[in-house]
Specification:
With 485 residues, the chain is α/β, with parallel strands linked by helices. The longest helix is centred in the first third of the chain and has 28 residues. It folds into three domains: 91 residues, no CATH class; 197 residues, no CATH class; 168 residues, 3-Layer(aba) Sandwich (Rossmann fold), CATH 3.40.50. The strands form two sheets. It has a six-stranded parallel β-sheet. The chain has a two-stranded antiparallel sheet with strand order 1-2. Helices cover 57% and strands 7% of the residues. Helix 13 packs across helix 19 and helix 15 packs parallel to helix 19. The termini are far apart. Pfam families: PNTB. It is a multi-pass membrane protein. Its EC number is 7.1.1.1. Keywords: Cell inner membrane, Cell membrane, Membrane, NAD, NADP, Translocase, Transmembrane, Transmembrane helix.
Length: 485
Protein backbone atom coordinates (compact mmCIF):
# COMPACT_ATOMS: atom_id res chain seq x y z
CA UNK A 1 0.00 0.00 0.00
CA UNK A 2 1.31 3.48 -0.90
CA UNK A 3 0.83 5.56 2.26
CA UNK A 4 1.85 8.71 0.37
CA UNK A 5 -1.65 8.90 -1.05
CA UNK A 6 -3.64 11.73 0.48
CA UNK A 7 -7.26 11.38 1.43
CA UNK A 8 -9.78 14.13 0.85
CA UNK A 9 -10.40 16.17 3.95
CA UNK A 10 -13.78 16.87 5.49
CA UNK A 11 -13.21 20.57 5.69
CA UNK A 12 -12.93 21.06 1.95
CA UNK A 13 -9.76 23.11 2.49
CA UNK A 14 -7.19 20.61 1.28
CA UNK A 15 -6.17 17.08 1.93
CA UNK A 16 -5.70 14.99 5.02
CA UNK A 17 -2.14 13.59 5.17
CA UNK A 18 -1.53 9.86 5.09
CA UNK A 19 -0.28 9.84 8.68
CA UNK A 20 -3.72 11.02 9.76
CA UNK A 21 -5.34 8.08 8.01
CA UNK A 22 -2.92 5.79 9.87
CA UNK A 23 -3.89 7.52 13.12
CA UNK A 24 -7.57 6.92 12.37
CA UNK A 25 -6.76 3.29 11.63
CA UNK A 26 -4.95 3.02 14.97
CA UNK A 27 -7.99 4.55 16.68
CA UNK A 28 -10.16 1.92 14.99
CA UNK A 29 -7.88 -0.84 16.34
CA UNK A 30 -8.23 0.58 19.84
CA UNK A 31 -12.02 0.60 19.44
CA UNK A 32 -11.97 -3.06 18.40
CA UNK A 33 -9.81 -3.87 21.43
CA UNK A 34 -12.30 -1.94 23.57
CA UNK A 35 -15.20 -4.06 22.33
CA UNK A 36 -13.19 -7.21 22.94
CA UNK A 37 -12.33 -6.10 26.45
CA UNK A 38 -15.92 -5.20 27.29
CA UNK A 39 -17.05 -8.72 26.42
CA UNK A 40 -15.93 -9.94 29.86
CA UNK A 41 -16.10 -8.33 33.34
CA UNK A 42 -12.52 -9.47 33.95
CA UNK A 43 -11.20 -7.36 31.05
CA UNK A 44 -13.76 -4.55 31.07
CA UNK A 45 -11.44 -1.97 32.64
CA UNK A 46 -8.81 -2.58 29.96
CA UNK A 47 -11.58 -2.33 27.35
CA UNK A 48 -12.65 1.06 28.69
CA UNK A 49 -9.05 2.31 28.65
CA UNK A 50 -8.60 1.20 25.04
CA UNK A 51 -11.80 2.97 24.05
CA UNK A 52 -10.66 6.19 25.72
CA UNK A 53 -7.26 6.01 24.02
CA UNK A 54 -8.87 5.41 20.64
CA UNK A 55 -11.24 8.35 21.05
CA UNK A 56 -8.41 10.64 22.17
CA UNK A 57 -6.35 9.67 19.10
CA UNK A 58 -9.32 10.30 16.78
CA UNK A 59 -10.24 13.68 18.29
CA UNK A 60 -6.67 15.00 18.44
CA UNK A 61 -5.97 13.87 14.88
CA UNK A 62 -9.08 15.64 13.60
CA UNK A 63 -8.22 18.86 15.42
CA UNK A 64 -4.63 18.84 14.17
CA UNK A 65 -5.40 18.10 10.52
CA UNK A 66 -8.30 20.51 10.01
CA UNK A 67 -8.47 24.27 9.90
CA UNK A 68 -10.56 24.90 12.98
CA UNK A 69 -12.47 28.19 12.97
CA UNK A 70 -12.11 28.76 16.69
CA UNK A 71 -10.09 26.21 18.64
CA UNK A 72 -10.80 28.04 21.91
CA UNK A 73 -14.56 27.53 21.53
CA UNK A 74 -14.04 23.85 20.72
CA UNK A 75 -11.74 23.44 23.74
CA UNK A 76 -14.35 25.07 25.97
CA UNK A 77 -17.08 22.79 24.57
CA UNK A 78 -14.90 19.70 25.17
CA UNK A 79 -14.13 20.86 28.72
CA UNK A 80 -17.81 21.47 29.52
CA UNK A 81 -18.77 18.10 28.05
CA UNK A 82 -16.03 16.35 30.05
CA UNK A 83 -17.18 17.97 33.30
CA UNK A 84 -20.78 16.95 32.64
CA UNK A 85 -19.73 13.41 31.73
CA UNK A 86 -17.53 12.94 34.81
CA UNK A 87 -20.23 14.37 37.08
CA UNK A 88 -22.91 12.07 35.68
CA UNK A 89 -20.62 9.03 35.85
CA UNK A 90 -19.83 9.69 39.51
CA UNK A 91 -23.36 10.47 40.64
CA UNK A 92 -25.53 8.13 38.59
CA UNK A 93 -26.88 5.10 40.45
CA UNK A 94 -26.41 1.70 38.86
CA UNK A 95 -30.19 1.31 38.84
CA UNK A 96 -30.43 4.31 36.53
CA UNK A 97 -27.78 3.06 34.11
CA UNK A 98 -30.26 1.71 31.49
CA UNK A 99 -32.12 5.01 31.12
CA UNK A 100 -28.78 6.87 31.13
CA UNK A 101 -27.59 4.74 28.21
CA UNK A 102 -30.85 5.43 26.36
CA UNK A 103 -30.43 9.14 27.07
CA UNK A 104 -26.88 9.15 25.69
CA UNK A 105 -28.07 7.33 22.57
CA UNK A 106 -30.56 10.15 22.00
CA UNK A 107 -27.72 12.68 22.08
CA UNK A 108 -25.79 10.72 19.43
CA UNK A 109 -28.87 10.71 17.21
CA UNK A 110 -29.48 14.42 17.73
CA UNK A 111 -25.83 15.18 16.91
CA UNK A 112 -26.19 13.30 13.62
CA UNK A 113 -29.27 15.36 12.74
CA UNK A 114 -27.52 18.64 13.59
CA UNK A 115 -24.42 17.74 11.55
CA UNK A 116 -26.64 16.66 8.66
CA UNK A 117 -28.47 19.99 8.59
CA UNK A 118 -25.18 21.87 8.90
CA UNK A 119 -23.84 20.00 5.86
CA UNK A 120 -27.04 20.70 3.94
CA UNK A 121 -26.97 24.42 4.76
CA UNK A 122 -23.24 24.90 4.07
CA UNK A 123 -22.04 22.00 1.87
CA UNK A 124 -18.89 23.79 0.68
CA UNK A 125 -17.53 23.83 4.22
CA UNK A 126 -17.88 20.04 4.30
CA UNK A 127 -16.26 19.45 0.92
CA UNK A 128 -19.30 17.68 -0.54
CA UNK A 129 -19.91 19.87 -3.60
CA UNK A 130 -19.04 19.36 -7.26
CA UNK A 131 -17.53 21.84 -9.75
CA UNK A 132 -20.91 23.59 -10.04
CA UNK A 133 -21.12 24.00 -6.24
CA UNK A 134 -23.99 21.52 -6.02
CA UNK A 135 -24.11 18.79 -3.37
CA UNK A 136 -22.85 15.50 -4.79
CA UNK A 137 -25.55 12.89 -5.36
CA UNK A 138 -23.80 10.33 -3.15
CA UNK A 139 -23.46 12.95 -0.41
CA UNK A 140 -27.18 13.66 -0.62
CA UNK A 141 -27.90 9.97 0.02
CA UNK A 142 -25.47 9.91 2.96
CA UNK A 143 -26.87 13.16 4.31
CA UNK A 144 -30.49 12.01 4.03
CA UNK A 145 -29.83 8.63 5.61
CA UNK A 146 -27.74 10.19 8.38
CA UNK A 147 -30.50 12.65 9.27
CA UNK A 148 -33.17 9.93 9.10
CA UNK A 149 -31.30 7.37 11.22
CA UNK A 150 -30.24 10.06 13.69
CA UNK A 151 -33.80 11.32 14.10
CA UNK A 152 -35.14 7.78 14.60
CA UNK A 153 -32.43 7.16 17.19
CA UNK A 154 -33.23 10.41 18.99
CA UNK A 155 -36.99 10.04 19.33
CA UNK A 156 -36.82 6.27 19.92
CA UNK A 157 -34.23 6.74 22.67
CA UNK A 158 -36.34 9.42 24.32
CA UNK A 159 -39.30 7.00 24.53
CA UNK A 160 -36.99 4.24 25.84
CA UNK A 161 -35.65 6.68 28.45
CA UNK A 162 -39.17 7.60 29.57
CA UNK A 163 -40.22 3.94 29.82
CA UNK A 164 -37.09 2.80 31.64
CA UNK A 165 -37.18 5.68 34.11
CA UNK A 166 -40.85 5.09 34.95
CA UNK A 167 -41.97 8.44 33.54
CA UNK A 168 -44.01 6.52 30.98
CA UNK A 169 -45.81 3.20 31.28
CA UNK A 170 -43.68 0.20 30.36
CA UNK A 171 -46.71 -1.57 28.92
CA UNK A 172 -47.01 -1.78 25.12
CA UNK A 173 -49.05 1.07 23.62
CA UNK A 174 -50.84 -0.34 20.59
CA UNK A 175 -52.05 2.05 17.91
CA UNK A 176 -54.64 0.73 15.44
CA UNK A 177 -53.05 -0.10 12.11
CA UNK A 178 -49.59 0.68 13.49
CA UNK A 179 -47.74 -1.70 11.17
CA UNK A 180 -49.27 -0.10 8.09
CA UNK A 181 -48.49 3.36 9.48
CA UNK A 182 -44.89 2.37 10.28
CA UNK A 183 -44.27 0.77 6.90
CA UNK A 184 -45.87 3.68 5.07
CA UNK A 185 -43.78 6.20 7.00
CA UNK A 186 -40.54 4.33 6.28
CA UNK A 187 -41.39 4.12 2.57
CA UNK A 188 -42.16 7.84 2.55
CA UNK A 189 -38.78 8.63 4.15
CA UNK A 190 -36.89 6.57 1.56
CA UNK A 191 -38.93 8.11 -1.27
CA UNK A 192 -38.21 11.64 -0.06
CA UNK A 193 -34.48 10.88 0.16
CA UNK A 194 -34.63 9.53 -3.39
CA UNK A 195 -36.43 12.64 -4.68
CA UNK A 196 -33.94 14.88 -2.87
CA UNK A 197 -31.03 12.95 -4.42
CA UNK A 198 -32.18 13.45 -8.03
CA UNK A 199 -33.75 16.91 -7.75
CA UNK A 200 -31.72 19.89 -9.03
CA UNK A 201 -29.91 22.01 -6.46
CA UNK A 202 -32.01 24.98 -5.47
CA UNK A 203 -35.12 23.44 -7.01
CA UNK A 204 -38.51 24.39 -5.64
CA UNK A 205 -39.29 22.62 -2.39
CA UNK A 206 -35.91 20.91 -2.04
CA UNK A 207 -35.40 22.39 1.41
CA UNK A 208 -38.77 21.06 2.48
CA UNK A 209 -37.70 17.56 1.43
CA UNK A 210 -34.87 17.48 3.97
CA UNK A 211 -37.08 18.92 6.70
CA UNK A 212 -39.84 16.41 5.88
CA UNK A 213 -37.35 13.51 6.11
CA UNK A 214 -36.30 14.68 9.58
CA UNK A 215 -39.88 15.15 10.82
CA UNK A 216 -41.07 11.77 9.54
CA UNK A 217 -38.00 10.08 11.04
CA UNK A 218 -38.70 11.67 14.42
CA UNK A 219 -42.26 10.32 14.20
CA UNK A 220 -41.29 6.78 13.16
CA UNK A 221 -38.77 6.56 16.03
CA UNK A 222 -41.59 7.32 18.41
CA UNK A 223 -43.99 4.88 16.73
CA UNK A 224 -41.47 2.02 16.67
CA UNK A 225 -40.74 2.07 20.41
CA UNK A 226 -44.10 2.74 22.10
CA UNK A 227 -45.55 -0.70 21.15
CA UNK A 228 -42.59 -2.55 22.68
CA UNK A 229 -43.26 -3.89 26.16
CA UNK A 230 -41.05 -4.16 29.20
CA UNK A 231 -39.93 -7.73 28.55
CA UNK A 232 -38.24 -6.61 25.33
CA UNK A 233 -36.69 -3.36 26.60
CA UNK A 234 -33.14 -4.76 26.94
CA UNK A 235 -33.28 -5.59 23.23
CA UNK A 236 -34.51 -2.06 22.51
CA UNK A 237 -31.52 -0.55 24.35
CA UNK A 238 -29.01 -2.58 22.31
CA UNK A 239 -30.98 -1.91 19.12
CA UNK A 240 -30.90 1.85 19.69
CA UNK A 241 -27.19 1.53 20.35
CA UNK A 242 -26.91 -0.01 16.89
CA UNK A 243 -28.95 2.81 15.35
CA UNK A 244 -26.69 5.43 16.93
CA UNK A 245 -23.69 3.69 15.37
CA UNK A 246 -25.16 3.69 11.88
CA UNK A 247 -26.11 7.36 12.26
CA UNK A 248 -22.50 8.17 13.18
CA UNK A 249 -21.19 6.12 10.24
CA UNK A 250 -23.48 7.93 7.79
CA UNK A 251 -22.27 11.29 9.10
CA UNK A 252 -18.70 10.00 8.83
CA UNK A 253 -19.20 9.59 5.09
CA UNK A 254 -20.66 13.08 4.84
CA UNK A 255 -17.72 14.53 6.77
CA UNK A 256 -15.16 12.39 5.00
CA UNK A 257 -13.93 11.24 8.42
CA UNK A 258 -12.56 7.68 8.48
CA UNK A 259 -12.60 7.47 12.28
CA UNK A 260 -16.34 8.19 12.41
CA UNK A 261 -17.01 5.63 9.70
CA UNK A 262 -15.00 2.95 11.52
CA UNK A 263 -16.43 3.76 14.93
CA UNK A 264 -19.99 3.98 13.67
CA UNK A 265 -19.70 0.69 11.81
CA UNK A 266 -18.29 -1.04 14.91
CA UNK A 267 -21.02 0.30 17.18
CA UNK A 268 -23.75 -0.35 14.62
CA UNK A 269 -22.73 -3.91 13.83
CA UNK A 270 -21.96 -4.90 17.44
CA UNK A 271 -25.31 -3.49 18.61
CA UNK A 272 -27.16 -5.34 15.85
CA UNK A 273 -25.38 -8.61 16.65
CA UNK A 274 -26.10 -8.21 20.37
CA UNK A 275 -29.78 -7.51 19.64
CA UNK A 276 -29.97 -10.62 17.46
CA UNK A 277 -28.28 -12.78 20.12
CA UNK A 278 -30.66 -11.48 22.79
CA UNK A 279 -33.69 -12.11 20.60
CA UNK A 280 -32.54 -15.70 20.11
CA UNK A 281 -32.05 -16.06 23.86
CA UNK A 282 -35.62 -14.80 24.40
CA UNK A 283 -37.07 -16.87 21.55
CA UNK A 284 -38.14 -13.60 19.93
CA UNK A 285 -38.13 -12.72 16.25
CA UNK A 286 -35.51 -10.01 15.65
CA UNK A 287 -37.65 -8.49 12.89
CA UNK A 288 -40.70 -8.51 15.16
CA UNK A 289 -38.95 -6.53 17.88
CA UNK A 290 -37.34 -3.90 15.64
CA UNK A 291 -40.56 -3.51 13.66
CA UNK A 292 -42.37 -2.34 16.77
CA UNK A 293 -43.83 -5.25 18.69
CA UNK A 294 -45.37 -7.50 16.06
CA UNK A 295 -47.59 -10.08 17.75
CA UNK A 296 -47.72 -8.31 21.11
CA UNK A 297 -51.46 -7.53 21.10
CA UNK A 298 -52.65 -10.72 22.73
CA UNK A 299 -49.97 -10.60 25.38
CA UNK A 300 -50.71 -7.00 26.20
CA UNK A 301 -54.37 -7.79 26.67
CA UNK A 302 -53.56 -10.73 28.92
CA UNK A 303 -51.21 -8.63 31.03
CA UNK A 304 -53.92 -6.11 31.70
CA UNK A 305 -56.38 -8.63 33.17
CA UNK A 306 -57.39 -8.84 36.83
CA UNK A 307 -55.14 -10.88 39.13
CA UNK A 308 -56.52 -13.81 41.07
CA UNK A 309 -55.99 -13.85 44.84
CA UNK A 310 -54.22 -17.12 45.64
CA UNK A 311 -52.73 -18.57 48.85
CA UNK A 312 -48.96 -18.39 49.40
CA UNK A 313 -46.43 -19.07 52.14
CA UNK A 314 -44.61 -16.23 53.84
CA UNK A 315 -41.38 -16.66 55.78
CA UNK A 316 -38.79 -14.70 57.70
CA UNK A 317 -35.09 -14.02 57.44
CA UNK A 318 -34.47 -16.62 60.17
CA UNK A 319 -36.35 -19.27 58.15
CA UNK A 320 -34.31 -18.50 55.06
CA UNK A 321 -30.99 -18.46 56.95
CA UNK A 322 -31.69 -21.86 58.52
CA UNK A 323 -32.55 -23.50 55.18
CA UNK A 324 -29.64 -21.83 53.37
CA UNK A 325 -26.99 -23.03 55.82
CA UNK A 326 -28.44 -26.55 55.72
CA UNK A 327 -28.21 -26.68 51.94
CA UNK A 328 -25.41 -28.19 49.89
CA UNK A 329 -26.07 -26.15 46.76
CA UNK A 330 -27.68 -22.69 46.43
CA UNK A 331 -28.37 -20.91 43.16
CA UNK A 332 -29.02 -17.16 43.41
CA UNK A 333 -31.07 -15.44 40.69
CA UNK A 334 -30.74 -11.62 40.85
CA UNK A 335 -33.06 -9.22 39.05
CA UNK A 336 -33.93 -5.56 38.75
CA UNK A 337 -35.36 -5.51 42.29
CA UNK A 338 -31.88 -6.23 43.61
CA UNK A 339 -30.58 -3.26 41.64
CA UNK A 340 -33.31 -0.94 42.95
CA UNK A 341 -32.57 -1.94 46.56
CA UNK A 342 -28.79 -1.83 45.92
CA UNK A 343 -28.57 -5.21 47.61
CA UNK A 344 -25.63 -6.60 45.63
CA UNK A 345 -23.04 -6.01 48.38
CA UNK A 346 -25.20 -7.62 51.06
CA UNK A 347 -25.88 -10.51 48.67
CA UNK A 348 -22.16 -11.05 48.11
CA UNK A 349 -21.65 -11.06 51.90
CA UNK A 350 -24.39 -13.68 52.24
CA UNK A 351 -22.70 -15.80 49.58
CA UNK A 352 -19.35 -15.51 51.37
CA UNK A 353 -20.84 -16.67 54.66
CA UNK A 354 -22.56 -19.63 53.00
CA UNK A 355 -19.29 -20.71 51.37
CA UNK A 356 -17.59 -20.53 54.77
CA UNK A 357 -20.19 -23.02 55.95
CA UNK A 358 -19.39 -25.38 53.07
CA UNK A 359 -22.34 -24.44 50.85
CA UNK A 360 -21.81 -24.32 47.07
CA UNK A 361 -23.04 -20.94 45.82
CA UNK A 362 -23.67 -19.99 42.20
CA UNK A 363 -25.27 -16.96 40.55
CA UNK A 364 -27.60 -17.39 37.57
CA UNK A 365 -27.88 -14.47 35.12
CA UNK A 366 -30.63 -14.27 32.52
CA UNK A 367 -29.78 -12.55 29.20
CA UNK A 368 -32.47 -9.92 29.79
CA UNK A 369 -32.28 -9.56 33.57
CA UNK A 370 -32.49 -5.91 34.53
CA UNK A 371 -33.09 -3.17 32.02
CA UNK A 372 -30.10 -3.50 29.71
CA UNK A 373 -27.69 -6.19 28.50
CA UNK A 374 -25.20 -7.15 31.22
CA UNK A 375 -26.96 -5.12 33.93
CA UNK A 376 -26.74 -7.86 36.57
CA UNK A 377 -23.18 -8.79 35.62
CA UNK A 378 -22.08 -5.19 36.23
CA UNK A 379 -23.79 -5.05 39.62
CA UNK A 380 -22.26 -8.34 40.79
CA UNK A 381 -18.84 -7.28 39.52
CA UNK A 382 -19.24 -4.02 41.45
CA UNK A 383 -19.83 -6.09 44.60
CA UNK A 384 -16.70 -8.20 43.88
CA UNK A 385 -18.60 -11.42 43.27
CA UNK A 386 -16.07 -13.86 41.74
CA UNK A 387 -16.51 -14.18 37.98
CA UNK A 388 -16.30 -17.97 38.12
CA UNK A 389 -19.44 -18.10 40.27
CA UNK A 390 -21.59 -16.25 37.71
CA UNK A 391 -23.29 -18.35 35.01
CA UNK A 392 -25.53 -17.62 32.05
CA UNK A 393 -28.93 -19.29 31.66
CA UNK A 394 -27.87 -21.98 29.19
CA UNK A 395 -24.93 -22.99 31.40
CA UNK A 396 -26.78 -23.37 34.70
CA UNK A 397 -30.44 -24.08 33.98
CA UNK A 398 -29.93 -27.85 34.12
CA UNK A 399 -28.50 -27.57 37.65
CA UNK A 400 -31.71 -26.43 39.34
CA UNK A 401 -32.84 -30.05 39.64
CA UNK A 402 -29.82 -30.68 41.89
CA UNK A 403 -30.14 -27.42 43.83
CA UNK A 404 -31.35 -27.44 47.42
CA UNK A 405 -32.34 -23.77 47.29
CA UNK A 406 -33.18 -21.36 44.47
CA UNK A 407 -32.80 -17.88 45.97
CA UNK A 408 -34.64 -15.29 43.85
CA UNK A 409 -33.95 -11.66 44.68
CA UNK A 410 -35.84 -9.03 42.73
CA UNK A 411 -36.31 -11.15 39.59
CA UNK A 412 -39.74 -12.01 38.24
CA UNK A 413 -40.31 -12.45 34.52
CA UNK A 414 -37.10 -14.48 34.07
CA UNK A 415 -38.39 -17.19 36.45
CA UNK A 416 -42.04 -17.12 35.37
CA UNK A 417 -43.19 -20.53 34.06
CA UNK A 418 -45.96 -18.79 32.07
CA UNK A 419 -43.27 -18.24 29.45
CA UNK A 420 -43.37 -22.00 28.82
CA UNK A 421 -47.08 -22.73 29.24
CA UNK A 422 -49.30 -19.68 28.61
CA UNK A 423 -49.51 -18.74 24.92
CA UNK A 424 -51.45 -15.58 25.80
CA UNK A 425 -48.65 -14.28 28.02
CA UNK A 426 -46.49 -11.40 26.71
CA UNK A 427 -43.40 -13.38 27.74
CA UNK A 428 -44.47 -16.65 26.09
CA UNK A 429 -41.54 -18.35 24.38
CA UNK A 430 -38.87 -16.58 26.44
CA UNK A 431 -36.47 -19.08 28.05
CA UNK A 432 -36.73 -18.88 31.84
CA UNK A 433 -34.93 -20.45 34.79
CA UNK A 434 -36.36 -23.81 35.91
CA UNK A 435 -36.61 -22.75 39.56
CA UNK A 436 -39.64 -25.01 40.02
CA UNK A 437 -37.23 -27.99 39.93
CA UNK A 438 -35.32 -26.83 43.02
CA UNK A 439 -36.16 -28.46 46.38
CA UNK A 440 -36.78 -25.08 48.03
CA UNK A 441 -37.44 -21.61 46.62
CA UNK A 442 -37.04 -18.33 48.49
CA UNK A 443 -38.49 -15.35 46.67
CA UNK A 444 -37.67 -11.82 47.84
CA UNK A 445 -40.01 -9.05 46.69
CA UNK A 446 -41.49 -5.97 48.32
CA UNK A 447 -45.11 -7.10 48.29
CA UNK A 448 -47.50 -9.48 46.58
CA UNK A 449 -49.13 -6.53 44.86
CA UNK A 450 -46.30 -5.95 42.41
CA UNK A 451 -45.63 -7.82 39.19
CA UNK A 452 -42.68 -7.98 36.83
CA UNK A 453 -41.93 -5.45 34.12
CA UNK A 454 -44.04 -7.45 31.68
CA UNK A 455 -47.03 -6.96 33.99
CA UNK A 456 -48.06 -10.62 34.56
CA UNK A 457 -48.54 -12.72 37.69
CA UNK A 458 -46.08 -15.50 38.53
CA UNK A 459 -47.05 -19.06 39.47
CA UNK A 460 -43.75 -19.48 41.33
CA UNK A 461 -45.18 -17.35 44.15
CA UNK A 462 -47.73 -20.03 44.92
CA UNK A 463 -45.75 -23.27 44.57
CA UNK A 464 -45.61 -25.65 47.55
CA UNK A 465 -41.82 -25.29 47.88
CA UNK A 466 -41.85 -21.48 47.62
CA UNK A 467 -41.52 -19.21 50.64
CA UNK A 468 -42.10 -15.51 50.01
CA UNK A 469 -39.83 -13.05 51.81
CA UNK A 470 -41.77 -9.80 51.56
CA UNK A 471 -39.48 -6.89 52.33
CA UNK A 472 -36.93 -4.51 50.88
CA UNK A 473 -34.34 -6.75 49.25
CA UNK A 474 -31.32 -5.16 50.92
CA UNK A 475 -32.84 -5.20 54.40
CA UNK A 476 -33.98 -8.80 54.02
CA UNK A 477 -30.56 -10.03 52.88
CA UNK A 478 -28.85 -8.09 55.68
CA UNK A 479 -31.15 -9.79 58.20
CA UNK A 480 -30.33 -13.17 56.66
CA UNK A 481 -26.61 -12.39 56.97
CA UNK A 482 -27.07 -11.54 60.67
CA UNK A 483 -28.95 -14.81 61.20
CA UNK A 484 -26.10 -16.74 59.56
CA UNK A 485 -23.57 -15.50 62.16
Amino acid sequence: MDFSILAAGASGEGAVPAWAMLAYLAAGVFFILALRGLSSPATSQAGNRNGMIGMAVAVITTLVTHNIANIVEIAIAIFIGAIIGVTIARRIAMTAMPELVAGFHSLVGLAAVVVGFAAWLNPAAFGITDAADQILAVSRVELGLGIAIGAITFSGSIIAFLKLSGRMSGSPIMLPGRHVINLGTLVAILALIGIYTVSPEGGAGQGYLVIAVALLAFIIGFLLIIPIGGADMPVVVSMLNSYSGWAAAAMGFTLGNSAMIITGALVGSSGAILSYIMCRAMNRSFISVIAGGFGADAGAAAAGGAREQRPYKQGSAEDAAYMLEQAEKVIIIPGYGMAVAQAQHALREMGDKLREKGVEVKYAIHPVAGRMPGHMNVLLAEASVPYDEVFELEDINSEFAQADVAFIIGANDVVNPAAKTDKSSPIYGMPVFDVDKAKQVFFIKRSMGGVGYAGVDNDVFYMNQTVMLLADAKKMVEEIVKSLD
